[in-house]
Amino acid sequence: MDAYTPQLPDEDNLYEHHAFTVDKGQTPLRIDKYLMNFVENATRNKIQAAAKNGSIFVNDVPVKSNYKVKPFDAIRVLFTHPPFENLLVGEDIDIDVVYEDDDLLVVNKQPGMVVHPGHGNYSGTLINALIHRFDNLPNNSSERPGLVHRIDKDTSGLLVVAKTEEAMAHLSLQFANKTSEREYVAIVWGNVKEDSGTVEGNIGRHPKNRLQNTVFFGDDEDKGKPAVTHYSVLERLGYVTLLSCKLETGRTHQIRVHMKHIGHTLFNDERYGGEKVLKGTTFTKYKQFVDNCFKVLPRQALHAKTLGFVHPTTGEFMRFDSEIPEDMQQCIEKWKVYSKHQEL
Description:
Layout: E1 15-21, E2 29-30, H1 31-36, H2 44-52, E3 56-58, E4 61-62, E5 68-69, E6 74-79, E7 96-100, E8 104-109, H3 126-133, E9 156-162, H4 165-176, E10 181-189, E11 196-200, E12 202-205, E13 213-216, E14 228-237, E15 240-247, H5 254-261, H6 284-296, E16 302-310, E17 317-321, H7 326-343
Parallel strand pairs: 9-16
Antiparallel strand pairs: 1-6, 2-5, 3-4, 3-6, 7-8, 8-9, 10-15, 10-16, 11-14, 12-13, 14-15, 16-17
């Protein structure tokens, strides 16, 4: 083997951007191919360039892009600049504030807006808008100003933001103790059999694709964190079902993961396979109909409709409700017409 001397900058000036441990069941795979499933918005060229620059470490040793990962390898990706999510800049961005007082505000987030900066999304986020609008927002445990909880980029709906340290502590405790109220509306593939039910399953990072989460059970249960989702059918629309989902816990992608786990992936959820025709006929006209629905609703069909919590200062229980967005409403109407036609 040729000696490998990476172009390594001073270690004191390196900043960790990604870190994870390879799953015990991983088969040997080139690290550039492996990382494409684990680093969002990364291309193979970027990963190979990072390896050439000595920025990819396995067990604290820099490796080439052809290094083959093994079970339990500790991988770290470092660069000479700090992660952009740590470089917060205020931006004058319109946000839909449905309630505000001295302690908090409730925002109705539009689909497509990222909540906080992260890999590939360093501007235009809700946090950029908040720090432009407010001075000295309190940081949460992840150093993100104002955020008590979050919802995904392409999920629309309600979020509460803390404006003081006391409000942050009080509201965060309610979410941790499962006393807050969170109801989502979702369109899922398939005719959900039961009128209501509960999905319980520990959620953690997918071992082969870190851009997804998955349910762990049996001997692997301890790889995930406990998660509980209660659902009820709002309307049956033929090959899809309109659901109400109430969260008891708030894991990343919880509804998306739990619904896929029970065989009812969210409609047009590209990350979890819902952008394909998962239920229905083989007729070309049906496929065209579904494609039209995808065009009307170019995101996962999920909306955070209702949010309830105890006000941190007054002790009053407050509940907020939001309208289902236009894109999701149009999709529902299309399925209503289609399902009625099918019944005829």
